[in-house]
Structures are given as C-alpha cells and as structure tokens.
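Saturday, quiet lab. Running sequence design on the structure tokens for the scaffold JK sent over.
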C-alpha cells in the first residue's frame, strides 16, 4: 500500500470505483475515462510501480493479471469480438498512474498500430 497512490486507495476502498472483479491478488475496475465501450483496468493488489519494478517473486501475480483479463472480457462479453490488453511502462508509453495496470479495451474495432 502506497498512501499517495490512487489505485492503492481504490483497492483499499478509500476511493470509489466501479469494481468488476476482486480477489486476493488483483482488482479490476472500470477506467474513469473509457476509450471504448469496455475499458477495464486490472491491477495487482500489491503496489508495483510498473513492469520495470516487477520481481521474480511477483510472477504469480502477473499470471493472475492475464487470467482476470480473460475473466473480465467474458463478463463484458467481448471475447468473440476480441480486445486489447495493454500495459504502459514509463514516460515514452504515456504511463500516468505508477501502479502497474493492464488496460482491457474492447467492444468496438480498435485502431492499430498505436506507435
Ligand atoms: P496509464 O496512462 O496507462 O497510466 O493509464 C492510467 C489510466 O487510469 C487512465 O486510462 C485513467 O483514465 C485511469 N484512471 C486514473 N484515475 C482513475 C480512477 N480514480 N478510477 C479509474 N480509472 C482511473
Ligand atoms: Zn498503488
């Protein structure tokens, strides 16, 4: 828990969010500024700043991020249409919240490439 981190506050319940799923390792909630009909953030309950701070001991959490990405896609019924799972890391990526998070974005055709 980082008391200055908005996602830690969502995980602890201090800050409201539209929670889609929660378990002992990760929490999924709807992005406050959605870019598509489905835009869900899947975040570790542990405060990890970004991919660049991931440790080997965190590998089980990262596996859960993917299995919960699948779960929330099923909840929003976007599996057949497909979706994008994105993890921004550091300044060039545009990361704005420094608590690791996977964007699950879908429900419409998505533009690509993004670079
Ligand atoms: P990133 O640019 O990858 O760091 O993405 C951060 C995302 O967090 C953005 O899409 C924001 O809209 C979203 N966001 C920031 N604050 C909140 C919040 N309190 N509740 C839900 N989503 C948020
Ligand atoms: Zn945090």
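Result came back. Writing it out in full:
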């Amino acid at each position: 828990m980082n008391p200055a981190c908005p996602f830690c506050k969502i995980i602890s319940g201090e800050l409201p969010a539209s929670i889609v799923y929660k378990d002992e390792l990760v929490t999924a909630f709807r992005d406050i500024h959605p870019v598509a009909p489905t835009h869900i953030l899947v975040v570790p309950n542990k405060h990890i700043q970004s991919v660049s701070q991931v440790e080997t001991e965190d590998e089980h959490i990262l596996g859960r991020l993917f299995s919960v990405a699948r779960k929330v896609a099923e909840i929003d019924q976007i599996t057949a249409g497909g979706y994008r799972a994105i993890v921004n890391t550091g300044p060039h990526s545009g990361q704005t919240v420094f608590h690791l998070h996977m964007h699950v974005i879908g429900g419409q055709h998505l533009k690509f490439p993004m670079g």
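Notes for JK: The chain has one domain: 6-106. The domain at 6-106 is CATH 3.30.428.10 (HIT family, subunit A). Ask whether to fix the surface positions before the next round.
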